[in-house]
Amino acid sequence: MMTPSFVLIARQHPAWAAVAMGAAAVGVAVLPVWFAPPLLLAIGVLAWRWRQRPRVVPSQPGVVLAPADGRIVRIDRVRDPYADRDALRISLDSGWVDSPVSRASVDGVIRSVQYFPGPAFHASLDPASPMHERNAVVIDSAGQTITLVQVAGWLARRILCQVRPGDTLTRGQRYGGVRFGARLEVYLPAHAVPRVGPGDRVSATTSILASLSPA
């Protein structure tokens, strides 16, 4: 199965794209000629950053997919503070050149959406993670609980979440995003089996993070 067809700019970011493109166009028109190449390069970087393309959704049942593009930085067993349970946590850092879109890791119904404001820290700093601006989406997936947490970084912090409790998500569905660097934390049932390791690069939707064995 494949997610919806190609869109050049992610739907979560049309205003940012318009402002950036407009500013660049004005700059090319009024600034010295030598300034045009850096501006055009910046446009290319932003277009790559805000790109949107279809993703192939794995067909295997009972798996949890990556919610974003990035690199696995930690796998540990912790307490899920958003669903109040013991959990396996898989954390990934999404860099500023990665696509900012957040996608559903599983099929399910949203049980709760919990937003927490916070000061500016780099998203990769572990001690700062609980203090960051963050948004947790708790999903009931066929009787198993999956929590997806968007953690904002220090640059252009803004979390976008376009779902609410009671909504139904399908694997690979876009539900929000975090601009310019973020951490995504996935809390799984304690019996889940990781399919990735620290340092692995993953792609949203197409990469499998873990398998869910029967509860």
Give a quick summary of the entry.
The protein has 215 residues and is mainly beta. The protein folds into two domains: 46 residues; 149 residues, Distorted Sandwich (Glucose Permease (Domain IIA)).
Task: Give structural notes.
The protein is mainly beta. The chain folds into 2 domains: 7-52; 63-211, Distorted Sandwich (Glucose Permease (Domain IIA)), CATH 2.70.70. 14% of the residues lie in helices and 39% in strands. The protein has 2 helices and 16 strands. An 8-stranded antiparallel β-sheet has the order 11-7-8-9-13-5-4-15, with no helix packed on it. It has a 3-stranded antiparallel β-sheet with strand order 3-16-14, with no helix packed on it. The longest helix has 17 residues, at 14-30.
What labels would you give this structure?
three-stranded antiparallel β-sheet; 2 helices; 2 domains; mainly beta; eight-stranded antiparallel β-sheet; Glucose Permease (Domain IIA); single chain; 14% helix; 215 residues; 16 strands; disordered N terminus; globular
- Spatial gap, N to C terminus: 27 Å
- Examine the coordinates and then state which fold CATH places here, giving the name of the CATH topology of the largest domain: Glucose Permease (Domain IIA)
Measured as a percent range, the helix fraction is 10-25%
Which band does the percent of strand residues land in?
Answer: 35-45%
Sheet with most strands? 8 strands, antiparallel
CATH architecture of the largest domain: Distorted Sandwich
What's the structural domain tally?
A: 2
Question: Which class do the helix and strand fractions yield?
Answer: mainly beta
Report Rg. Answer: 18 Å
Let me know the average pLDDT: 80
Oligomer: single chain
Q: How many individual β-strands? A: 16
Please give the CATH class of the largest domain: Mainly Beta
Low-pLDDT residue intervals, each spanning 5 or more residues: 2-13
Major sheet strand order? 11-7-8-9-13-5-4-15
Order of helices and strands: EHHEEEEEEEEEEEEEEE
